[in-house]
Amino acid sequence: MPRSFLPSTFLILSLACTGAELTTEPPAIGAAAAASPAAEEPREVLAARVARALRDSAFRAEVHRALAGSRHPEGKVQLSAFLEGSARARAVLARAGSRPLKAAELAAGEQLEIYLPVPAHRAAWRGGADILVGSIGQDGTTPVAFDASGRRTQLDAAQPPVTPVLAVVPLESDLAERPGAASPAGICTSCEGSSTAGGLYMTASRLSETFESWLKGRPEIEVLALGQQGASDSLTSYQCGGERAAGAYYFDQNSLDWSGDALILSQAQLDAYRAEHPGQSIRLFFMEDDDTSCEIRADNADLRRVIQTVDSLARGYSGGTDATGPIGRVYRNYNMLQKVYSVVASAVRTNDDLIGNAVEDVVAGEVRSGYNWIIKGENGRSNGAIRLEMR
Fold this sequence. Notes:
By secondary structure, the chain is an alpha+beta fold. The chain has helices spanning about 5-20, 40-55, 55-70, 80-85, 85-95, 105-110, 120-125, 265-275, 300-315, 360-365; strands at about 75-80, 110-115, 130-135, 145, 150-155, 165-170, 200-205, 220-230, 235-240, 255-265, 285-290, 320-325, 330-335, 340-345, 355-360, 375, 380-390. It has a nine-stranded mixed β-sheet. The protein has a six-stranded mixed β-sheet with strand order 1-2-6-3-4-5. A hairpin with a 5-residue loop joins β8 and β9 (about 235-240). α1 (about 5-20) packs across α5 (about 85-95) and α1 (about 5-20) packs across α6. The chain is elongated and about 70 Å long. The two termini are about 40 Å apart.
């Protein structure tokens, strides 16, 4: 999120939660009907307060309008931007708690988004009182929900409830709707190519999990073609593919299985890399992108650990290159001669899920019908399989 957006929204949220700007506030909506377990996470404190504020019908109507008017495909709205746009919403939220928000809770408001992540919930909710407020931190943790009294309960990690759930979750993209701002559904500016281009294609993918909780909406599965940057000791992305990629590089995997035709690298890109880096190979890395599309936003130590583990298991043959074989053009394993494990400009702010590095099945020692490369992740775990072919 652009840093220039922080001061005004932080100030407004601070004013709302310390009692300032409340001369036109509605009648108090009261304290919680029953004592709730103390929420230690600032994110949960805000989620509980939003849940209590939703008892106010006008507040619910404002939330409904904001979600319906969102430009994001899943109807996401930045929490602080929503509050910035409505003095009444700020007033209701301020009165929904028994104390002013702490500094950490105010700061958390800048990094949260609200939306209805389940499509059936988005279709069913019309601004009524039949709604819960859910929250979750890192993927893999148990989601929680707050009712209108602010009472905290745990949700099923695998299945959403029948009652619509408004998610208050960590911000995954820049949702600030300012003049000239790029669309949240923007594409990778480096992505080009047509469906008739020759090169390396992915035609099938099967993952062991989607690497995204249902409370955080659709997964954003991407594959990055990583290679050495110049003669440096850093990796850089030569191409990305996924739901925000353009042309032939586009594919949208929202479940465990996907099939289609997605260009990974054109023949021109393969030739150019080989000319610049003779004897080197390309690493295909998969991730569930929780932040800026086509960029790895993860701790370099985590990324390095995954890559080094995979390289060790694959005896260095964790990359690939195109070659001519007995049956024509093929994409085959190739030794990663360059021992570089850091991503260029990885001044990270959030954590994407690192699904893993693709390794040819003959190297991985795994055979899966219909696939020829295995995605190896943390601790050498097999997180999926893909089919690659040259055209």
